[in-house]
Amino acid sequence: MKKITRATFKGFVKRNRESLYVKVKSNFDAMVDGVRPVNGGFEPAQEPWNEVMREDSLGIRGVWLVGNSRDYFTPYEDDIFTGISCCNCCGSWIVAIQK
Question: I need a labelling partner for 51 at 20 to 30 A (CA). Which of 61, 64, 65, 76 fits?
Answer without folding.
Answer: 76
